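Residues determine shape. Take a concrete instance:
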Amino acid sequence: MSNKITLACAICSSRNYSTNKNVSTKATRLEVRKYCKTCGQHTLHRETK
């Protein structure tokens, strides 16, 4: 079963991206390096609640 999640920048905490995650296979929080338009650089984005 997939749940919709939101990714937030670790530096400025702006919520830039949303995606789906398969809960049955991924128990930990998702962490991805993506471009943050607020910071103007590639930063770590973490899954939020």
Notes: The two ends are 17 Å apart (CA to CA). The CA atoms of residues 6 and 18 lie 4 Å apart. The longest strand covers residues 2-9.
